[in-house]
Design brief:
By secondary structure, the protein is of the alpha+beta class. Helix content is 46%, strand content 25%. It is built from 5 helices and 5 strands.
Length: 142
């Protein structure tokens, strides 16, 4: 199956990643993939209908979380202090709990500008969520 994913188009891989996240993450109500180089939500699946404005805001919020001005400043300071010159980002995963749901944002290892977003019911076992999402994301090299 990994060979099939590597030979598929980028769009097919993104849609496959979203479908796998949606079906394999526990208590998942929505999943998507954000391209932070464009600030666009590339693909998503959800159990509810959401206004397009909310989905657009999710992409923008993801961009702010991972590459907002202050976050980039923090990364630059750490890179300078550690003498690092690579372009990789320090923030790889972010967990956000709201009143009703848990959001997990995971940056893809091979594509630092692509973030998988999984939204689950608040009752989710966070450890299982993180383990499952990491496993699924690892299978995809977009």
């Amino acid at each position: 199956m990994a060979t099939k994913r590597m030979n598929a188009s980028f769009s097919d891989q993104v849609m496959g990643l979203v479908k796998s996240l949606r079906t394999e993450a526990p208590d998942c109500v929505a999943a998507g993939v954000v391209d932070m180089s464009t600030g666009m939500l590339l693909s998503y699946e959800t159990v509810d209908n959401h206004p397009s404005e909310v989905l657009d805001l999710l992409a923008g919020a993801t961009l702010d979380l991972f590459q907002g001005r202050t976050v980039l400043m923090i990364e630059d300071v750490w890179k300078e202090r550690r003498g690092q010159t690579h372009d990789n980002h320090f923030f790889q995963e972010i967990l956000v709990n709201s009143d009703n749901v848990t959001h997990l944002f995971v940056r893809l290892t091979e594509q630092q500008d692509v973030v998988a977003v999984v939204i689950c019911r608040k009752s989710v076992n966070v450890g299982m969520l993180i383990a499952q999402v990491r496993r699924v994301v690892k299978e995809y090299s977009l």
